[in-house]
Design goal:
This protein has about 140 residues and is mainly α. The protein contains one helix and no strands.
Length: about 140
């Protein structure tokens, strides 16, 4: 019986000691769990801050992209206007040159026509004078005979 009492007292002491150690281990586990949760909270807050910064950056880049697209459209519109203006001016110059060339051709044709008329008139005059000279000479020859 004394051995049983001794074992009971010893078992009770051992059980008591195990409970204290278990409480300490639980407290230490809880403390490290709280610390880990705090670290995770800090990391989450840090990541949230980075997320906000990155979203701001994305917003700025989107605005910049939209501005650049707007500027590109404006440049494209100006380019098209310039090309149209150039084409209109080129067409106008071409038409003016064509008109000048046609006028030149008409003038040349008229000059050629006038020249031909003058040549025919001159030839008729020459022929007429020749005929007159021939008649005068024939008259003189007839008178001399």
């Amino acid at each position: 019986a004394s051995v049983a009492v001794a074992l009971t007292v010893l078992g009770a002491g051992f059980a008591n000691q195990t409970e204290v150690r278990a409480d300490d281990a639980t407290k230490q586990g809880t403390n490290s769990l709280y610390k880990y949760v705090e670290q995770l909270e800090e990391e989450r807050e840090k990541l949230e801050g980075e997320k906000v910064e990155l979203l701001d950056k994305v917003g700025q880049l989107e605005q910049q992209k939209q501005q650049e697209q707007k500027e590109q459209k404006e440049r494209q519109k100006k380019l098209e206007q310039l090309e149209h203006k150039y084409q209109v001016e080129t067409d106008k110059r071409y038409q003016e040159q064509q008109k000048k060339y046609q006028q030149y051709q008409q003038e040349q044709e008229e000059k050629q026509k006038n020249l031909e008329q003058l040549e025919r008139k001159y030839q008729r005059e020459v022929d007429k004078r020749y005929q007159e000279q021939q008649q005068k000479q024939q008259q003189l020859e007839a008178e001399n005979q």
